[in-house]
Here is the input.
Amino acid sequence: MTELESPLRHCPECGMNTRKERCPDDHAPTIMLSGFKRDALSFRPDEIVAGRYRITGTLARGGYSAVYAASHHSTRQPVAIKMLSIQHHVDAMRKVVRRFWREAQITARMTSPHTVRIIDVGQVEDGPLFIAMERLRGRTLGSFLQGLFQQNLVMTQDEAIGMAVPILRCLEEAHDLGLVHRDLKPNNIMLARVGADDTIVKVLDFGVARVKDSSLTADGNTLGTPAYMSPEQFRAAKVDARSDLYSVGVILFLAVCGRLPFQKKNIHALGRQHINDPVPDPRTFGRTELSSGFVDALMCSLRKAPEERYQSARTMRQALELVRGGAASGLSVAHIQLNPAGQTLIDESVSARDSQAFMLGVEMEDATVGIHEVDATIGIEEIDAGVFAEALNPELDAKVAPVAPTSLEGDAGGYTPSA
Here is the structure.
């Protein structure tokens, strides 16, 4: 086969289309975009992926994606194989391919025990892209909260802090690397079983993360899950690490109140609430005892303007740890949260104690990275925030392109417990 007859390929690093197996510009391995024979949904047990992973079962499947249980052919290590089909609409797939590839790169650079570990990434010879990840046993935070709410229960303040601190530790590392998750929600947080009876919090799916100063996801094409999105995401404004902290605040609110701070089911009405409406005091719902320090910390994370929130995940974590440990140091939560530079105001000996695993004492279910329960409160996978912002403000010139779904989940709104 001559080079002109070779399938079209794409460099996930620089975006160049070429027919060469390595990019002429940066020498990175290229991805085949045409000439493939199979899609991600067609693999069966006992098939070998990339010459080294034996599929043992199907964990989930979506329109263009599937996640398989597998084991390494030589070491027998259990893994989850996340696959993405390459569709014939080459131009539309280029951004999807780059997001998929970037998910692996982003997560592989992180060493926090609260981030899912990436083992391998590549392309099956017949077409689909794959990421091999550690296989986790456990359940999502969304599933756990759903179970609590169905029993008319919520998390206690200490349980909620114990859940949030590991998430913030993960975000500390991500943000220090210049990475913003942009889609934090209960179904992207795993309560993974470690050993016989320990549980550790893991943050999943950096697949729509944005690298600081990268044009991978343009400002007009913000992805996210509406109920947990920050006001600036709804406006299609510039998003930075402080947007993730807003999402953590929404998750905390849900955990201790049994409901979201804003619950409109119409996407435009929900966006206006996040942008304009005051956050209700969580104590008004009376579901569990909350200290003033905890409420102050929570409300700080949910402020409309990013500059008025915590300025770093580290600062928010330390504020919550101070609440959990008491005010023996004499520093108030307000003293921390109002520090404009986001610098540490708490002595390390007081605040930076080791983060204990979030021990829930619940029966765990089989689950895997990238597999999330679906909550169809609003019923969309992700939104194009540029279009949404234009609908909110007709004067906003937001020219955006359609956004393709990048993950299997369809959680758009979270959970509303039964009365």
In short: Residues 99 and 207 are 6 Å apart (CA to CA). Residues 157-176 form the longest helix (20 residues). The mean pLDDT is 74. The radius of gyration is 22 Å.
